[in-house]
Specification:
Layout (H helix, E strand, L loop, with lengths): L4 H22 L49 E6 L5 H19 L3 E5 L5 H9 L5 E5 L2 H4 L7 H13 L8 H12 L12 E4 L5 E2 L7 H7 L4 E3 L2 E3 L8 H11 L10 H5 L5 H6 L6 E3 L4 E4 H4 L2 H13 L1 H4 L4 H12 L5 E3 L5 E3 L2 E3 L27 H7 L4
Helix pairs in contact: 6-14, 8-12
The structure holds guanosine-5'-triphosphate and magnesium ion.
Magnesium ion binds next to loops.
Pfam families: Glyco_transf_15
Family: Belongs to the glycosyltransferase 15 family.
Protein name: Glycolipid 2-alpha-mannosyltransferase
Length: 393
């Protein structure tokens, strides 16, 4: 018996709706609750009025003039690893930082490159600051792929990383850059007599007027490391980083600081899937495109041994270990967590994330906004973990 056409259409529609319903229920990840950056019952501290840090602060004055006979500047530099082709982005970042901070303090800029800087790069960058500018080429032995890396294995590893959508997996220079930023930049001869640095990348933005010498702040308040943004990493870029770390720790148990941030490193309450895939590490890290830090820490015995261990393990190439998780794990293990400072007052953006405090000194960013990208990016915020296990200062 023939079925009437409208009934057939209705039946087909019902089957399609049923299929759609089943897909919604059983599609991968459908039952996983997406954690938001700041839990609903907690208040984002960036929404609270933010002033300067407490304690003595050094203000701009004649001692900070570029050619001051008796300079009040301490032993520090602004530092950028950058390509000649990134000149426009570098100028933009420099203008922002000069406008908000460095025109008052005139700390030198030191630029690093794996090849010679062009005359145009030197000319244009020196025009946007009154401070001294230095241009340094990285020694070949610091940049080239170490002899123990097997290129066939590298190519095979790239395929696996690409299957997991790891960005820049096949770009050798990206791996070299991460390794250099992890364990080599502070060994450059041009920095031999420099203690503190502020890392600046092309295209980043600074939004808030800062009226004190941040390097003096680090020194006077006994801080090792300053950050603005705290993020989760892609676990598939670092599956063996934590296992290598625990191996290293077992061989050097005395390196673990008595006031370490170990609990922060191994948290699995917030994103258990990340901890699971990263084999015991939460993947929460200080986002290292912004760093204000004391190189004495990187030059310490503990860090030197740790970096050499990681370097030999090969994960800068066979996986895609970034300098952010490497630096963060080392700080979390070997440093007193009270010596790590959240620069909540420094308004900052590296696409697609912000640190934008509630302060009349800030212009051009939306207070408390973490990202201007897709909403799901909010779950990458792991500041609440730092606040929970460490502190907000
Ligand atoms: N001289 C030089 N600088 C590099 C090279 N690769 C990266 N850099 C610099 O290293 C820093 C980090 O590189 P990015 O490409 O910004 O890496 P990222 O921040 O993880 O990636 P994005 O999200 O695309 O910005 C930037 O300051 C770059 O200018 C390189 O091969 N040579
Ligand atoms: Mg970048």
């Amino acid at each position: 018996m023939a079925i009437a056409r409208p009934v057939r259409v209705l039946g087909l529609a019902a089957v399609m709706m049923w299929c759609f319903f089943l897909y919604q229920v059983f599609r991968p990840g459908a039952n996983i609750k997406v954690p938001l950056g700041i839990p609903n019952n907690e208040r984002d501290p960036l929404l609270d009025p933010t002033g300067e840090p407490e304690g003595i602060l050094h203000r701009a004055g004649p001692g900070y003039a570029p050619d001051a006979a008796h300079s009040e500047r301490i032993n520090a530099t602004l530092l950028a690893l950058v390509r000649n082709s990134e000149l426009p982005g570098m100028l933009q970042a420099m203008r922002d930082l000069e406008r908000t901070w460095n025109h008052k303090f005139n700390y030198p800029w030191t630029f690093f490159n794996d090849e010679e800087f062009s005359d145009e790069f030197k000319k244009k960058t020196s025009e946007v600051t009154n401070a001294e500018t230095r241009y340094e080429v990285i020694p070949r032995e610091h940049w080239e792929v170490p002899s123990w890396i097997n290129m066939d294995l590298f190519q095979e590893s790239v395929k696996i990383l690409e299957e997991h959508d790891i960005q820049y997996a096949g770009m050798m220079s990206y791996h070299q850059m991460c390794r250099w930023n992890s364990g080599l930049f502070y060994k450059h001869p041009a920095l031999a007599n420099t203690q503190f640095y502020w890392r600046v990348e092309p295209k980043v933005h600074f939004f808030c007027d800062i009226d004190y010498d941040v390097f003096r702040f680090m020194q006077d308040h006994n801080k090792t490391y300053g950050f603005t943004i705290n993020l989760y990493d892609a676990p598939d870029s670092i599956p063996s980083l934590w296992p290598e770390t625990t191996k290293f720790l077992s061989a050097h148990p005395s390196y673990l600081h008595e006031n370490s941030a170990m609990n922060w490193l191994v948290d699995k309450a917030r994103r258990p899937d990340h901890n699971y895939k990263a084999n015991g590490y939460s993947t929460c890290h200080f986002w290292s495109n912004f760093e204000i830090a004391d190189m004495s820490f990187w030059r310490s015995r503990e860090y030197e041994d740790y970096f050499n261990h990681l370097d030999r393990a090969g994960g800068f190439f066979y996986e895609r270990w970034g300098d952010a998780p490497v630096h963060s794990i080392a700080l979390g293990l070997f440093e007193d967590r009270n010596r790590i400072h959240w620069f909540r007052d420094i308004g900052y953006q590296h696409i697609p994330f912000f640190n934008c405090p509630n302060s009349p000194k800030c212009k051009g960013c939306v207070t408390g906004r973490f990202t201007d990208g897709e909403a799901w990016l909010n779950k990458e915020d792991c500041r609440p973990n730092w606040f929970k296990f460490a502190h907000m200062d």
